[in-house]
Every structure is written in C-alpha cells, then in structure tokens.
Write a structure and sequence with these properties.
InterPro entries: RNaseH-like_sf (IPR012337), RNaseH_domain (IPR002156), RNaseH_sf (IPR036397). GO terms for molecular function: nucleic acid binding; RNA-DNA hybrid ribonuclease activity. It is a single chain. The chain is an alpha/beta fold and 140 residues long. It has a single domain (2-138), classed as Nucleotidyltransferase, domain 5 (2-Layer Sandwich). The protein is 41% helix and 33% strand. It has a five-stranded mixed β-sheet, sandwiched between helices. Strand 1 (2-13) and strand 2 (16-25) form a beta hairpin. The longest helix is centred in the middle third of the chain and has 19 residues, at 44-62.
C-alpha cells in the first residue's frame, strides 16, 4: 500500500510555543492515522522537523502491520523538504541534529520514501492539528 503523510509544524513566536500535526491517508485518501503534539519552546523549523520525525517513527513502527511499501511525505516547509531531498544544505546548528535523526530513521524504514513541498492551503488538516498541539501547551 502507498500512503501519503502530511506534516506541519508551527511556533507562536520564533522561538515560542510550538507544536506539530501529522495526517496519514491511504491510497484511497481515507484517513488512517492522525496525531498532534506540543513541543514546548522551539523554533518554527524545529517544529516542522518534529512533525517529520514523529511521522517517520510512525511509519517505521507500522509499515509491516499495514503492509506499506511506499510513503510520500508532504509539507509546506520548503526549507525542510529541500533539505530532506538533499537540495539544500543544513546550515543551522539547531536543525543539523534533527536532520540527522530523520535520516537515521529513513535508513530503518523499508518503504520507498519521497518528499514533496505543497502549498499551505493543501495542508489544512496537518496545520489544524499543529495548532491544536500549540493550544495544548497554552491551555495548561
């Protein structure tokens, strides 16, 4: 099965209260998983990577059970996507370790993986969930 994985991260302030959202749909566009999480005080780009790393972990843990053999990741963070595609170097010190962590997870995943940048308007559900993650912290 091929899945589409939508991720989004955000920060209210940069750095500031941050969170991410993840949505996974199957090849029929049926929602099979979604989650959100607060990340505390992080930058926007750290939150974007947080969502990606969480989603990669989910894929690693579920690809055999769900018979996933291909995953396309979509995010509206052009910086993160181009870094994962190898088109941009990771220069920021705070992102180097996160990029390394994401790449390490990819090595443990059997599924074919592709990364695509999308417009923010096409990432509505993951954005909504990222905002829920940020709200979770603010409502404590």
């Amino acid at each position: 099965m091929k899945v589409k994985i939508f991720t989004d991260g955000g920060s209210r302030g940069n750095p500031g209260n941050s969170g991410f959202g993840v949505v996974v749909v199957d090849d029929k566009n049926d929602n099979i998983f979604e989650s959100y999480q607060n990340m505390g005080i992080k930058t926007n780009n750290e939150a974007e990577y947080g969502g990606l790393i969480f989603a990669l972990g989910w894929l690693k843990d579920n690809e055999d059970r769900l018979q996933i053999n291909e995953a396309e990741f979509y995010a509206d963070s052009e910086l993160m996507i181009k870094q994962m595609q190898g088109l941009y170097k990771v220069k920021a010190r705070n992102l180097k370790e996160l990029n390394k962590q994401a790449r390490g997870l990819i090595l443990e995943i059997k599924s074919k993986i592709k990364f695509s940048a999308i417009l923010r308007e096409l990432n509505n559900r993951a954005d909504l969930l990222a905002n829920r993650g940020m709200d979770k912290y603010e409502n404590k």
